[in-house]
């Protein structure tokens, strides 16, 4: 593998950086050209966008896996970011990534929506790989650097890193929910995972309830005790909770847990929503579907947490009851391929595709299709065109850390039209309170909400959309990363926070 384009092989693996992001995935994807050559392209997605300005301002590096098993890639530079690849073998991918991360932690942290599997071999691999990430980070972090670790795949990194490098400041952000202690307690390695996280100075969660769940679990299952911290003379509020870790040991430190709801790059989505080519494409999509009165849209990774089956069931019943007809309504379901080697994801795909076939078989006419199902990923331009084409956006997740699709949809609706049906079990529901909020398990409630959204009056729709747009525009992803990093630096300056 070689790096081209605006990338250059650094050949200076001994360089150190003041700011280091650590994530399972790198912020770049390898793209193979027609002539067989390869280059790196910036990955789409909020986290990469959010951290780009921070990377530019600081002397920043990103430590992560490059996505190809059994390949070692030398550190290189891409734009303003120094890339430090961590290698994973085929076995690591199977045990640490597909196994422990995505078949143990993922279902456990999403309210056991699927049954988590507990295997000691997976745990051993998770530990080994977390250590590899911590060691790679310890090598590239400058003295006193700030390190920001991302997500559930790397929960042991904060403590491991603190043990090797007590001089660095460590933040951690959990992008997915943190479950109630009653569910978390099923994990055979619960104490080690909590202690891993407690190595951080600041732990960020999507919702206040996630931060609270973590603190309850830590108090119950580890030796940490609750503590009070005063930051810049301001006493702590209920929003943030502090824990004293390892009291009495020289490594004792305070760990603060707090909610920092992640968001999107509103500037990018809004600009695309106003781009004439994208607006044209939206018109074309509607035309190709035969200009139905109502287009409903679902956009998800094909994941069992997203409530795609519940959504299809509600839509099918609305057609069967005659509340909607294929002449007037069409559901577009984009389901992007995800974790396809994990059993539960394979089974889900078969089930969803079977259900779509069943609905279309029952309700299609020669000229109309009930559900347009697309098992693809699309570039952001096409996504925004779909948002513009859709009258009703359906976000019916059974559990979701945040759900950025909901935020993208409202951002794209520049003329304040459209309606959002949003599951109350998403982090986004804490902020987008003017959506048609639903409990997706309640199929009758879901059907009523979909009908209400399809028949909402223009003024009511505009009032709701205006208020949700205001929320997202004042809380974008740059605000998210700035808030987290400012808090982290305030905490490390706070008196008594650091125990030398
Ligand atoms: C969620 C997780 C991310 C993960 C993404 C895609 O958003 O919070 O950490 O990267 O899903 O999943 P994948 O397994 O493809 O990385």
UniProtKB/TrEMBL annotation:
Gene3D superfamilies, sorted: Glycogen Phosphorylase B
Chain ranges passing through the membrane: none
InterPro entries: Glyco_trans_20
A GO BP annotation: trehalose biosynthetic process
Gene Ontology MF term list: alpha,alpha-trehalose-phosphate synthase (UDP-forming) activity
Domain of life: Bacteria
Family classification: Belongs to the glycosyltransferase 20 family.
Protein name: Trehalose 6-phosphate synthase
Species of provenance: Arthrobacter woluwensis
């Amino acid at each position: 593998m070689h790096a081209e384009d605006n990338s250059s092989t650094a050949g200076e693996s001994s360089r150190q950086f003041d700011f280091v992001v650590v994530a399972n995935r790198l912020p770049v994807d390898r793209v193979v050209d027609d002539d067989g050559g390869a280059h790196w392209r910036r990955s789409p997605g909020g986290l990469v966008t959010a951290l780009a300005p921070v990377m530019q301002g600081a002397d920043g590096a990103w430590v992560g896996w490059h996505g190809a098993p059994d390949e070692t890639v030398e550190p290189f530079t891409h734009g303003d970011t120094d890339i430090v690849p961590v290698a994973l073998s085929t076995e690591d991918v199977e045990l640490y990534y597909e196994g422990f991360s995505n078949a143990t932690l993922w279902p456990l942290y999403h309210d056991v929506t699927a049954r988590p599997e507990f295997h000691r071999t997976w745990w051993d691999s998770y530990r080994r790989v977390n250590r590899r990430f911590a060691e790679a980070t310890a090598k590239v972090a400058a003295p006193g650097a700030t390190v920001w670790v991302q997500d559930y795949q790397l929960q042991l990194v904060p403590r491991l890193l603190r043990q090797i490098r007590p001089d660095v400041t460590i933040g951690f952000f959990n992008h997915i929910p943190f479950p109630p202690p009653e569910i978390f307690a099923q994990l055979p390695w619960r104490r080690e995972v909590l202690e891993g996280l407690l190595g951080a100075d600041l732990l960020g969660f999507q919702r206040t309830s996630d931060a609270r769940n973590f603190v309850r679990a830590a108090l119950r299952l580890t030796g940490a005790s609750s503590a009070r911290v005063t930051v810049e003379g301001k006493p702590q509020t209920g929003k943030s909770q502090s824990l004293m870790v390892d009291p009495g040991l020289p490594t004792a430190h305070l760990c603060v847990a707090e909610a920092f709801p992640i968001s999107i790059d509103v500037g990018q989505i809004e600009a695309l929503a106003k781009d004439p080519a994208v607006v044209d494409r939206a018109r074309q999509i509607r035309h190709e579907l035969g200009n139905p009165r109502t287009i409903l849209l679902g956009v998800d990774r094909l994941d069992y947490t997203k409530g795609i089956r519940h959504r299809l069931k509600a839509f099918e019943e609305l057609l069967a009851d005659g509340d909607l007809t294929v002449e007037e309504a069409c559901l577009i379901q984009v389901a992007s391929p995800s974790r396809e080697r994990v059993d539960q994801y394979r089974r889900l795909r078969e089930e969803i595709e079977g259900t779509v076939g069943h609905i279309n078989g029952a309700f299609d006419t020669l000229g109309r299709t009930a559900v347009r199902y697309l098992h693809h990923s699309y570039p952001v331009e096409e996504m925004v065109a779909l948002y513009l084409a859709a009258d009703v956006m359906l976000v019916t997740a059974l559990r979701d850390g945040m759900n950025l699709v909901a935020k993208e949809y409202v951002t794209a609706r520049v003329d304040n039209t459209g309606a959002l049906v949003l599951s109350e079990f998403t982090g986004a529901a804490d902020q987008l309170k003017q959506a048609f909020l639903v409990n997706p398990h309640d199929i009758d409630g879901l059907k009523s909400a979909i009908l209400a959204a399809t028949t909402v009056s223009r003024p009511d729709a505009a009032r709701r959309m205006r208020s949700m747009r205001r929320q997202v525009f004042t809380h974008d992803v740059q605000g998210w990363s700035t808030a987290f990093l400012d808090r982290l630096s305030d905490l490390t300056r706070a008196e008594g926070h650091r125990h030398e």
